[in-house]
């Protein structure tokens, strides 16, 4: 009778181990699937974040370019005005000198 009980216990333990193995395999498969889904979600989010950051960088670069363009225009305009004034003074001086030498 003890031998039958021991045999029954061994069979029950074997079935228990098989069920645990099956459950462990199902759990592993679910975890692998979850990790794959999470990795894909993170990759998509990273791509979105990079696009947003790239757009922000391009926008900031455009702002800086516009700012520096305006500064360069202002400096160029000032240089042109100064040169024009200098040329007008030089032309007036040259004309006065020409008139003085003609007289």
Total number of helices: 1
Number of strands: 0
Proportion of strand residues: under 5%
| Alpha-carbon Rg, integer | 44 Å
Task: Tell me the span between the first and last alpha carbons.
Answer: 149 Å
Arithmetic mean pLDDT: 94
Q: Report on the biggest sheet.
A: none
Order of helices and strands: H
Q: Which outline best applies? A: rod-shaped
Poorly predicted segments:
none
Structural class: mainly alpha
- Helical content stands at over 70%
Overview of the molecule:
With 103 residues, the protein is an all-alpha fold. The chain is built from 1 helix and no strands. The longest helix is centred in the middle third of the chain and has 101 residues, at 2-102. The radius of gyration is 44 Å and the shape is rod-shaped.
Give a topology summary.
Elements: H1 2-102
Characterize this entry briefly.
The chain has 103 residues and is mainly α. Helix content is 98%, strand content 0%. It contains 1 helix and no strands.
Identify the notable features of this structure and list them briefly:
single chain, 103 residues, mainly alpha, 1 helix
